[in-house]
Specification:
Rossmann fold; binds guanine; 16% strand; 2 domains
Length: 283
C-alpha cells in the first residue's frame, strides 16, 4: 500500500484564502486586524517561526505589531508590555513565542494576556473552555490538525485516536478537542507519554496517530496500524535536515494518509493563527 500524502501547504493555502476574505470584509468596516508578536531572546528556530507568522499576516491583511526583546528582558517589563498590548485597541491578537528564557515564569505571562486577545489559545481560560466543549480560540497547532483531518475527509467519530506527547501546546489540547461530541471530533482518544509502559501496544491500534514527541523517527513502521492516518507534528533538526517524529518512508508503505515534514502540520499552524487573529478582530 502506498499512502496519500496530506498536502499541508495546499490545505493551508485554502484556509489562508478564506481568512483573507474575512479580513477584507473587516477592512470594509474600517477594522484592520492587528497581531502583536512578542519574541524574547535570539533563539534561531523561534526567530524563523515568528518571521514566517509575520510574513503570513502581511499576505492576508493583518497588521503586525513587532516586539523583538533581548533575552535579558526582566519579567515585569514583559508583563508591562503585555498590559499595554491588552489596552491597545489596534491589537486584536497577542502572541508570545515560546519557549521563554529561564528567568521568566511562562505561566505568569500566559495568564497576563487578555483571554479575548489570546491568538494562541494558551490562556487557562481558553484551555478550560476547550476542555468544556465551548471554545473561544483553540491553540493553532491542534486547530490545524483538526482542520487537516476534516479537509482530508478523515472520519474521527468512532476512530481510535492515539496522541503521543502530552504538551500543553499540542498533546493535551488536541486530545481535548478530538474527544468532544462535536463535528470533526467524537474519537476514542488515548494519550501516551514518557510514563507509558509500552507505547507501541497503543500505537498499533491507532486509526489516527498524532505524533508530538520531539524526537526524530521515534515512531517506526512496526508501531503503525495498516491503513491508518498519521499526523506528524515533529520538527526535529538532524544532520539529514528537518525530520518528523515518524519514519515517513515506513508510514508511506503501511498507512493510508500521512503528513510530511516539512509541509504538513507547520503551514496549517500558521494558517490557524491567522484565522484566530481575524476571529478575535470580529471576522
Ligand atoms: N512555540 C512552539 N509552538 C508555538 C506556538 O504555536 N505558539 C507560540 N507562541 N510559541 C510556540
Amino acid at each position: 500500500m502506498t499512502a496519500a500524502v496530506i498536502d499541508g501547504k495546499a490545505l493551508a493555502q485554502e484556509v489562508r484564502s478564506e481568512v483573507k476574505v474575512r479580513a477584507l470584509a473587516l477592512a470594509e468596516e474600517g477594522i484592520t486586524p492587528g497581531l502583536a508578536t512578542v519574541l524574547v531572546g535570539e533563539d534561531p528556530a523561534s526567530r524563523v517561526y515568528v518571521g514566517a507568522k509575520q510574513k503570513a499576516c502581511a499576505e492576508v491583511g493583518i497588521k503586525v505589531w513587532d516586539y523583538p526583546l533581548p533575552s535579558s528582558t526582566p519579567e515585569d517589563e514583559l508583563l508591562g508590555l503585555i498590559a499595554d498590548l491588552n489596552a491597545n485597541e489596534g491589537v486584536h491578537g497577542i502572541l508570545v513565542q515560546l519557549p521563554l528564557p529561564e528567568h521568566i515564569d511562562e505561566q505568569k505571562v500566559l495568564v497576563a494576556v487578555d483571554p479575548l486577545k489570546d491568538a494562541d489559545g494558551f490562556h487557562p481560560m481558553n484551555l478550560g473552555r476547550l476542555l468544556a466543549g465551548d471554545p473561544l480560540v483553540a491553540p493553532a497547532t491542534p486547530a490545524g490538525i483538526q482542520e487537516m483531518l476534516m479537509r482530508s475527509n478523515v472520519e474521527v467519530s468512532g476512530a481510535e485516536v492515539v496522541v503521543v506527547g502530552r504538551s500543553n501546546i499540542v498533546g493535551k489540547p488536541i486530545a481535548a478537542m478530538l474527544l468532544q461530541k462535536a463535528p470533526g471530533a467524537n474519537g476514542t482518544v488515548t494519550v501516551c507519554h514518557t510514563g507509558t509502559r509500552d507505547i507501541a501496544q497503543h500505537t498499533v491500534r491507532a486509526d489516527i496517530l498524532i505524533a508530538a514527541i520531539g524526537r526524530a523517527h521515534a515512531i517506526t513502521g512496526p508501531m503503525l496500524k495498516p491503513g491508518s492516518v498519521v499526523i506528524d507534528v515533529g520538527m526535529n533538526r538532524t544532520e539529514d535536515g528537518l525530520k518528523g517524529d515518524v519514519d515517513f518512508d515506513a508510514a508511506m508503505e503501511i498507512c493510508s494518509q500521512v503528513t510530511p515534514v516539512p509541509g504538513g502540520v507547520g503551514p496549517m499552524t500558521i494558517a490557524m493563527l491567522l484565522s484566530n487573529t481575524v476571529m478575535l478582530a470580529g471576522g
